[in-house]
Amino acid sequence: MKSIIVILTAAALVLTFAPVASAGDPAIICKSDSTGKCAGRKYCCYPSGMSQSDGDKYCKKLGCRRGGTSSCPTAANVSSCGTRDKALEKTSKK
Fold first, then answer.
1. Closest among 85, 62, 61, 64 to 73, alpha carbons compared
2. Residue (of 42, 48, 46, 72) closest to 57 by Cα position
3. Phi and psi at residue 45, to the nearest 5°
4. Beta-bridge partners for 70
5. Could you tell me which residues come within 8 angstroms of residue 64 by beta carbon, excluding any fewer than 6 positions away?
6. Whole-angstrom Cα distance, residue 48 to residue 90?
7. Residue 20 neighbours by CB distance under 10 Å
8. What is the pLDDT along the chain (94 residues), one digit of tens a residue?
9. SS3 43
10. CB 92 within 8 A of CB 56
11. pTM of this prediction?
12. What angle do CA 72, 74, 79 make, to 5 degrees?
């Protein structure tokens, strides 16, 4: 009985402190021949309030050649243009 209580307590703690999984912002997968700000980037992230059509237009203006759709990755080793572009964030804050 004690082991069941310990297991249930541990499970409750894990669920309490585990990060909530979210869908994240939408993104367009950029092809390798993308240009402009999206050259060499794998994803073009756009605000979640935009429709997919508006997101396509937004990313196309940045030079992304559409290869598909995805959610915007949050990993540090994945480069993206658009709303999650770290270089754009630094210049826009100045």
1. 85
2. 46
3. -90, 145
4. 27
5. 28, 30, 31, 34, 38, 41, 44, 81, 82
6. 21
7. 4
8. 777 776 767 665 444 443 333 457 899 999 999 999 999 999 999 998 889 899 999 999 999 999 999 999 888 898 899 987 655 544 444 4
9. strand
10. no
11. 0.65
12. 75
Residue that is written with structure tokens 């270089």 in the block: 87
**Whole-angstrom distance between the N-terminal and C-terminal Cα of the chain?**
60
Q: Give the tokens for residue 24.
A: 């994240």
Domain map of the chain by residue range?
Answer: 21-85
Provide the token pair at 86: 């770290």
Helices (H), 1-94: 2-17, 52-62, 86-92
Which pLDDT score is estimated for 71? 92
Structure tokens at 73: 């990755």
Which tokens hold the place of 76? 């540090």
